[in-house]
Amino acid sequence: MKNIVKMSDLTNEEVYDLIKRALELKRGKKVVPREDLYIANLFFENSTRTKHSFEMAEYKHRLNVINFDAATSSVNKGETLYDTCKTLEMIGCNMLVIRHSQDEYYKELGKLNIPILNGGDGSGEHPSQCLLDLMTMYEKFGTFENLNIIIAGDIKNSRVARSNYNMLTRLGATVRFICPEIFKDDSLGEVVDFDEVISEVDVCMLLRVQHERHNSEMNLTKESYHKNFGLTKERYEKLKDEAIIMHPAPVNRDMEIDSELVEVSKSVIFEQMKNGMFIRQAMIEKIIKDNNL
């Protein structure tokens, strides 16, 4: 496999292999250091977790890391994404991690001779987030078969929702959505009422309301959203004992989830962040191996 840019690039076997390898790394297994390789992180959108967990994973591999700064680059002179990436290839980078606001930006990069890891494309996909979510669920349940999962939030603009729905459905889980009409995506699964399903679910995944992708005409207050579509204390009390709460973060506290619930016993929100570094280590290791770097 040359690149990991969308979840459909991966077979079910490859997904399980990545999860199991990441869990090995979490238990203390080591990666082979590669001090001869160079990797560049190109983040054209803001990021804390994805950017820095990729960066930490890269340092764990002993890679030479170049953190590209779009704000001070020739992008501001009109340089295309392809020309920027080709430049990094020509000066010696062996692989790239890219986050970009354009859906499927990677389709323009077919002439590159170095692999790409997608750190998120527009409202398209987010494979590393999907894989860390899968890892977190697998660590808890040991399977995806027959898991009952709800994803609540800004479905329409969420690359996380899209990647997770497609992959989890493929692996045997049932995935349904909770959202206001304005956030609905008809290309994905069934939208249900939060209060009708909350007592049945194994995984309650919450998504950030992406204010930056909405215009000022959106008539949705923090209070009304939380009451109708957020995880309130009352809804939390109805969860099964073994259920888990997830969120890719950043969290709009008291909007998607009551602030007091972010670190309750059923919450694995911060464990997801921890798992993110290990799954990204496993992804980098796979790319190095598959490309004979």
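Above is the first protein from milestone M3; the second protein from the same milestone is given next.
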Amino acid sequence: MNDKQWEDYKSKFIELAKLNNKTQKYIDQNINYAFNLFQKGLPIIYDTTHLGLLTGIKKEYIYLVVSSPRHYYRHFKIPKSNGFLREIDEPLPNLKIIQKWILNNILQNVPVSPYAKAYLHKTTLIDNAKFHKRQKIVYKLDIQNFFPSISSHMIYKFFCEAGYDLKLSRVLSRIVTLNNGLPQGAPTSPYLSNIIFKEIDLKIAKYCQQHKIRYTRYADDLTFSGDFNYNKLKTFVEWNIQKSGFNLNNSKTKILPKNKRQIVTGIVVNEKLQISKNERKKIRHELHYLKLDTNKHLSLRANNEKAQIKYLQQLLGKINYGLQINGKSKELLLGKNFILNILKQF
């Protein structure tokens, strides 16, 4: 909404309010409320009924979600890379529509810390890793139970500080939280985590600037690099995040000196950015057997043409990802051309 649109909105609001015999006090309060949100680039929402009109979801449904959110999620588990299971709470379709509206119209208009590298448009794992290339020490800390640690009260406080009515802030916070935390599976959770952690990011970054330490955060992974006293750094970080309701997962703390493989969000950063040695080995293995006997290897990998194409496309995707990180890799470039030539034969 630009200035002209605001003036049009204001005039129309006053006109309708007077037609409905609203007092001047009512008009002034609502215009001030709306202008505060307008100045921040946030959508003007007066109450739950208004939210329902904006999202296209009936207010009665919203009230039901607010009173009993547990009934509006599908709970399931998916395997993690470490063999454990990740619990997912996926919102049901109408709730997801509301959450996506909140994400697109409210949350994404709120700036986050420049040190946050996850869940942002056009930001990748590479953007996180490249800051830590060729450093004496890479030091990694992990936040324990990141999403569940972000409480409903933190979210409520955010919406209040954004300028929304107290009752509406309570409704909004209930819509995007579950069991007093951010649900893993809701579209709003990732960006909200960046918003809530912004203040901590800035405190950590200030300390790092004073001590010439590089700092980025990818979701719950905090990465530091340079030449510094990591014990003092950890004490500072731990004290600050605990004050804000978070804890470190000490079992995931890693100190990576330059004479060892330094991996940041799955990318090796010692001298040049590249995929891990294990991933390169897997790709090399697949390419070797494809070159040895293409038809035989494809038949072992998949039992029909469609599945074979899918296998080749997946392998090509891994190679392309490696080239995104290191576009000069001759091995990957040759492998890409080889796969593309096979695909042309289908």
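Note on the second protein: Residues 189-210 form the longest helix (22 residues).
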